[in-house]
Amino acid sequence: MRYDEMYKELAAAAVRGYAARHGLPLSASWAEKPLDALTEDELAALLDQGSAWGVKLYRFKRGHETLPRVRQILGFLRGIQPESLLDVGSGRGVFLFPFLDGFPGVSVTCLDLLDYRVSFLEDIRRGGVERLTAMQADICACPVPEKSADVVTMLEVLEHVPDVQAAVTAAVRIARRYVAVTAPSKEDDNPEHIHLLTKPLLTEIFRNAGCERLHFGGVPGHLILTAAVGEEA
Length: 233
Prior knowledge:
The protein is α/β, with parallel strands linked by helices and 233 residues long. It has 8 helices and 7 strands, in the order ααααβαβαββαβαββ. The protein has 2 domains: 58 residues, no CATH class; 169 residues, Rossmann fold (3-Layer(aba) Sandwich), CATH 3.40.50.150. It is elongated.
């Protein structure tokens, strides 16, 4: 893969964090410089080293930001300019990496159930993206304090969650301004999708959580919801 097709600074952070976690040697200049001070040659050398170690650099390939559902959520966030975000189920970074790249001043907390994904995200933080925090946690029993993030995103997540009401109620508790959701809008053959979340069903769930101001949209195959909470409601 060509490095100019990647989120190079995020990938370099992942390599540095991977090296620190595994006790692998790196040049002091590569290990200690701020990410935005690394030269193109240093970035390339770091990525070459990561590739040799087997770091999964393909995860940082650009292009997910052009997915219609991701593009719409990023557009919404550009409109409201949050200072902090909680991303539930960050997964492979389909939304997270374009967000980190496009919103450099925003602090981000990621929740994921899978330990290896949390370790991967922690490598990025350890490698220089200090505004990123990763936690292995279930949103339904989340230790994040009340009203601690401007926005909570749950993108392609709720269709996997057994207790959707509990997840939404927790997100509304944590959010100061908005909760943003995307979900498949039609049945599919993914065995991990245990709900089909329609507009009437999501309306009922969010109203049960105390949200009345809901804005629905969509792109082919996906439903998009932004719910105002707190001062925005």
